[in-house]
């Protein structure tokens, strides 16, 4: 690395640290707590194989005699102690939460990414081209908005599973779930990007690019796209929380992640069956984890929305 590069690096870091967004984050207690909680859960899920005391999906490590162990109490038969107790199969609840959060986060991030790609592409095309293309895409979006997203995800999930051979349904369940949630959430991205694109395409820098003969695809991707990503990031942050909740809802209903790869929603569904028999911890701790994750991501989205709003600076 040259001396000039070394001198530029601290300057860039310092400018990023002193930016309006970084300053707003450092001076927002809610954003700091929400970011810490989100980061903690994400890191714990990412390093679950290193953190979890047991692998809850390895049958050779399970002991049915450890089933229904209460939190921090020795099991009556084996004497083993588990921080958050065990479920009916003797699986450590703490370990299942870590592994379940991995699946929930993966589905949430992948579904948001899919919805963003589809929505941004549709919004850019509709806003820049206009005419019948804009009318067609927006009418499709309007029709989709008449259906609740969870019901639409259920419909897409059911149709997609119908085309998959039974032998591959469990293997493809997570990917089908991602597609179902992503296709049900692209509309909000498309509408926001379309509106921003219609504003940007009439500005001087776009008109100048047209005058010098730039290709429309280059104008859209190089000039317009970077200027419409601000609202998209806010929607994506809040959409991540909604996607995680949608996955948990579908899994709770029994049409999401298969029981062999349980997510937080599947764990809540399993725990709900034992709530009234006294094993409250099987339901409580996965529910608290899902609530903390969704709430912290939502609060981060609210903070980012305010931080990117120039009227509130």
TrEMBL record:
Transmembrane segments: 30-52, 103-128, 140-160, 172-193, 228-253, 280-304
UniProt KW keywords: Cell membrane, Membrane, Transmembrane, Transmembrane helix, Transport
Source species, domain of life: Bacteria
All copies of domain ABC transmembrane type-1, residue ranges: 101-301
Topological type in the membrane: Multi-pass membrane protein
A Pfam family reported for this protein in Swiss-Prot or TrEMBL: BPD_transp_1
InterPro entries attached to this UniProt entry: BP-dependent_transpt_permease (IPR050366), MetI-like (IPR000515), MetI-like_sf (IPR035906), OppC_N (IPR025966)
Keyword Cell inner membrane among UniProt keywords: no
Location within or outside the cell: Cell membrane
PANTHER family: ABC TRANSPORTER PERMEASE PROTEIN, OLIGOPEPTIDE TRANSPORT SYSTEM PERMEASE PROTEIN APPC
Family, similarity comment: Belongs to the binding-protein-dependent transport system permease family.
Name assigned to this protein: Peptide ABC transporter permease
Organism, as annotated: Sinisalibacter lacisalsi
Organism classification: Bacteria, Pseudomonadati, Pseudomonadota, Alphaproteobacteria, Rhodobacterales
């Amino acid at each position: 690395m040259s001396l000039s590069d070394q001198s530029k690096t601290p300057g860039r870091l310092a400018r990023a640290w002193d930016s309006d967004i970084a300053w707003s984050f450092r001076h927002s207690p809610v954003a700091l707590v929400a970011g810490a909680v989100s980061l903690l859960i994400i890191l714990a899920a990412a390093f679950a194989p290193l953190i979890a005391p047991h692998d809850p999906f390895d049958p050779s490590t399970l002991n049915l005699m450890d089933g229904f162990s209460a939190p921090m109490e020795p099991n009556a038969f084996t004497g083993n102690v588990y921080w958050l107790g065990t479920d009916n199969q003797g699986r450590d609840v703490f370990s299942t939460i870590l592994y379940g959060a991995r699946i929930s986060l993966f589905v949430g991030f992948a579904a948001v990414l899919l919805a963003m790609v589809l929505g941004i592409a549709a919004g850019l095309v509709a806003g820049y081209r206009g005419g019948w293309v804009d009318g067609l895409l927006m009418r499709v979006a309007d029709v989709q908005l008449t259906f609740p997203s969870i019901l639409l995800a259920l419909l897409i999930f059911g149709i997609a599973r119908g085309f998959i051979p039974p032998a591959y349904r469990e293997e493809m369940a997570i990917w089908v779930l991602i597609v179902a949630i992503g296709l049900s959430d692209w509309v909000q991205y498309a509408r926001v990007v379309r509106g921003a694109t219609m504003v940007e395409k009439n500005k001087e820098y776009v008109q100048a690019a047209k005058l010098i003969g730039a290709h429309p695809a280059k104008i859209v991707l190089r000039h317009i796209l970077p200027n419409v990503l601000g609202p998209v990031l806010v929607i994506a942050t809040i959409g991540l929380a909604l996607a995680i909740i949608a996955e948990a809802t579908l899994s709770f209903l029994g049409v999401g992640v298969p029981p062999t790869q349980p997510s937080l929603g599947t764990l809540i569904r399993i725990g709900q069956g034992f709530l009234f028999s006294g094993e409250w911890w099987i339901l409580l701790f996965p529910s608290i984890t899902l609530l903390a994750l969704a709430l912290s991501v939502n609060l981060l989205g609210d903070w980012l929305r305010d931080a990117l709003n120039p009227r509130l600076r």
